[in-house]
Each structure stands twice: as C-alpha cells, then as structure tokens.
Write a structure and sequence with these properties.
The chain is an all-beta fold. The protein is built from one helix and 25 strands. About 0% of the residues lie in helices and about 50% in strands.
C-alpha cells in the first residue's frame, strides 16, 4: 500500500475496502507540445496523478507592518479505488495547507486539511478553478479574479486575488523538466503580481490588508525520479514589474541534479535558463527548535549574468504537514536583493527534503 493510501486510511478517509489494491491505472502523461489555454487550464486535470495550486504573497496591514501568507491545495489520484462504485471510495483525494508568517509573533501560524472528494464537501472542478475542502476554498470569480478563504485555530483570511499580468509559462511553453530523465516533468505556469485585497484575522484582531501574491499551478504523472531527494524554489514579484521563478532539484548528498528558471523582464520579455546558468549558494542556516531540522534560510543565487541575495522575513517559517501530505518543509516570505544589497523584490522561498526525502 503506497503512502497516500496509508495517510487516507489513518485519517479515516477510506472504507474497509482500502486494503484492496487495484491494478495501476493509466495516468495521463506530461508530453512536450501541449498548448496551454486559459482560463481552461486554471481548472483541475483529474486524469493526472498529482496537481497543486500554490498561492503565496506579501500583505500589508493598515499600520504598514508586513505579513506573509500561503494557501495550497493538492489533488491526488490514488488509482486504487477507481472500479469501486461506492461514493465513499477515494478516487480523488485533496489536501490543503494554509499559513500566516507574522514577524510580530516570530512564528508561523499554520493549519492543514485532508479529505476524499465527494458529497459536495471536497471537490476540484474541471470546468473552472474551483477547489475546496469544507470552508477552505480557492476559486475563480465571475469577473476573472480569484478568491481564497481559509480558517485555522489562530488565524483566518478572505482574500481577493486580481490578475495583472498574463500567465508565465515555464520550461518549453509550460513543459517543465525536473531531472536529466525526460520522463520527470510537469505542466507548469505561474501568475505573478496578483493584486491582493481583503481581510486577515490573527488572534482576535481582524484587519483589512492589501499586497501582492503569486500563484503556481502544476500537474503531472511523475515528478521526482528515484535519485532526487528534495528541491529549493523561489517565486518573486520584482519591484520593476518583472517576475522570477528559480528552482533546483537535489540528490541525497545535497548536490544539484537539475535546475531551471524563468525571468520575465519589466518590458515583458521572457527568458528561460538552463541548469548550467543557475547556481544556489547557501548562506546562513537556521535550526528548527520543533524538529531539529536545519535549513539554509539565506541564499546567494546566480541566474545567468545576475547575482541575487535572498533574505527571510523571519526565520521560523517551517511547515510541519506530516499529518496530511507526510511532508516537512520550510516555506517563507523572503526579500530579494540585488548585487549591491538593494531591495528589488519580494516573494516566497521553499526548501524541501532537508529533514527526510520528500515523498511525492
């Protein structure tokens, strides 16, 4: 029984039939040449094995103090109950993570959910972007903007996300390789510079906020190959109107196996970078007092002829989601500086596979 079934059984998301393992289904595959269309491809792609919608952003309180926020919905097709006619069969499973980075508290406020799709309580629509678990949701509104709602024990938010730029396609027209092997790839695009407005509640205090966000959407059948252990990723809204996505895949010894980046200039031109044009140089590390895992939270990045520095809004942005997706990772609001140390953008840095191999 694979890890997704173990998680679902432990959470009570499957019936007693969860012990019955069906033959491996025919998942849709990622192939070069696919032409993305919007808003069609904002929606769910249920024939693929795994998919996620990832929203991260920087917000500003009325006082001017910054906050970071994250909400992610993961869809997984286990492929084990597809012949079962029961409405309780977990033919599609959803997970969700939400978090607030509050430098005033110097800790991450976080929550997570998991549910099988069904009964109108959890769903991922194929017709339009509309994914939800209970009262958490991310959906496209009739005017073309997005709305995201989430509630945790000590925070809540209701945010409107308005696109201001066209989708940024990564790799070759959205076909994004993840290893030297051709089969490890995803369909991948981002929506940078989403204009954010709405409200956030931290503790008992609810405030209006505004800011900018970034949405990542990926779907695939096979992502990490057997030799890959984790990844480092940055998505940054640049102050001049440009946008940068940069990532690398690491092996068990921490050495890079693959790297990729996309840079949209202020004028709108898009440039992609090959692995030998990218370098991640770790700087200061932070050790989590909760898990003992050490993360490199400051970086120097080389992207083509440019050198950038990345600094976190705060150190404690570790997200322990082992109760749902079985993963432990650092996901944090971060500033981007140029070669001279001048602030040129803000985004989110993600670090996975530092405590244990990331299970996909």
């Amino acid at each position: 029984m694979n890890w997704i079934m173990r998680v679902c059984c432990a959470c009570g998301l499957m019936t007693a039939t969860c012990a019955v393992v069906a033959a491996e289904p025919a998942f849709a595959q990622v192939e070069p040449g696919y032409r993305m269309e919007f808003p069609r491809d904002d929606a769910a792609h249920l024939r693929f094995h795994t998919e996620w919608w990832y929203v991260t952003g920087w917000l500003q309180r009325p006082s001017g103090e910054p906050l970071g926020f994250q909400i992610t919905f993961f869809r997984r097709r286990p492929g084990t109950q597809e012949g079962n006619p029961s409405q309780f069969a977990a033919k599609q499973v959803l997970f969700a993570h939400a978090a607030i980075s509050d430098p005033g508290r110097q800790r991450l406020l976080r929550a997570e959910k998991a549910a099988r799709v069904g009964f109108g309580l959890a769903y991922a629509r194929e017709q339009t972007l509309d994914v939800a678990i209970d009262d958490w949701s991310l959906r496209r509104e009739s005017g073309g903007s997005f709305r995201s709602i989430a509630t945790g024990d000590d925070f809540a938010f209701d945010l409107s996300l308005e696109p201001t730029q066209a989708p940024l396609l990564h790799g070759s027209a959205g076909y994004s390789r993840k290893s030297p092997q051709q089969g490890s790839a995803s369909y991948y695009y981002s929506l940078p510079h989403l204009r954010v407005s709405g409200s956030i509640q931290v503790g008992q205090q609810r405030q209006t906020v505004s800011g900018e966000a970034w949405l990542d959407h990926e779907w695939f059948a096979s992502f990490l190959d057997d030799a890959s252990y984790g990844w480092d990723w940055l998505g940054a809204n640049l102050d001049d109107g440009g946008a940068l996505m940069i990532s690398r895949i690491r092996d068990a010894q921490g050495a890079p196996r693959w790297a990729f980046a996309t840079w949209r200039s202020a004028a709108g031109g898009v440039r992609t970078f090959a692995p030998d044009q990218i370098e991640w140089l770790p700087g200061r590390h932070w050790r989590s007092p909760a898990t003992g895992v050490e993360y490199p939270v400051e970086w120097t990045l080389r992207v083509g002829e440019r050198t950038l520095r990345v600094r976190p809004l705060m150190d404690d942005q570790e997200n322990d989601t082992r109760a749902t997706t079985g993963t432990l990772y650092w996901e944090g609001a971060s500033r981007v500086l140029d070669e001279r140390g001048r602030l040129i953008g803000r985004g989110y840095l993600e670090l996975t596979g530092y405590g244990e191999r990331l299970g996909m």
